[in-house]
Predict the structure.
Amino acid sequence: MDNTNIFELAKDLLQQVEEFATNNTAELEKFRIAYLGSNGKVKQLFEQFKSVPNERKKEFGQIANQVKQTAEAKIEQIKTQLETATDTPTDIPDLTAPALTQPLGSRHPVSLFLRRAIDVFRGMGFAVVADREIEDDWHNFTALNTPDDHPSRDMQDTFYIQTNPAVLLRTHTSPVQARHMEKNQPPIRIVAPGRVYRNETVSARSHCQFHQIEGLYVGENVSLADLKQTLLVFARQMFSKDVEICLRPSFFPFTEPSLEADVTCFICQAKGCPVCKYSGWVEILGAGMVDPNVLENCGIDSKKYTGFAFGMGIERTTMQLYGIKDIRLLFENDVRFLRQFSGGL
Ligand code: PHE
């Protein structure tokens, strides 16, 4: 190749580099390899250096360097253009478009009832306590003054995990009060919400699992009048401000005297309806004065202290409040059913 050709080739390359344009990364890379690659056109150009006569070497060197620098600068420039191209206005999200909203869930009706009941008892100074669902015989039965031959201990009523020594699924929330008294001295004022289990055939009206909320107040001079007033305040705040309560004598091994409490029907306001079976009253809970044996079993001096306790099943009253006809619906968690309770209680 003669000198003129080498110079022309160099100028040609310079022009090609100057004119190169693309908006495509792959093409840019092709360009880089073709010109600046280890066997690229710039390298080949420098290889011609030795055949350039001495007096023109300087001039040739300048052009060759210019080709190299222009190619490098060109690549840098296109690269930054391509990188910032994603920020062009057309790619900015439409800020006026409606937001993607996450649908709100709803609370389970049993939770709605429990939360509200807890709120009412908290307002009266009761603390919330939780404990285990797998219990021993002592806390579920014996400490609570339940005789060895009591029918509730029966296999037909209680789910035993193990028989000797007995380990079982708690049949009520009362063992929570026994455990709490073992660890604490009066004054004690607690409610214990939670799940309980009974060996029942599942049907529209009964289930082998349900919820209760237990209440316990132990102190000096706690009387039946305190129990009555507590239940009345609870009923009026929970259902409506003009409900009345009716206390009927009953029996539980752990309370003496024992009673069951009714409230005026919250569906018909005591006018008579299928929920209250036209009696005007709906039963809501069992209660009584804590039997002195229970206090002693749990390490509390029954000569100094007295107490009252109550236990309320949640499902039945919740079903009456909402007109739910089948208890199984409460355990199936079908969202079409649950969605209906998004309004709260
Ligand atoms: N534990 C009783 C039940 O499950 C309810 C209750 C609790 C009654 C406390 C009196 C006192 O039926």
In short: The chain has two domains: 3-85, 109-341.
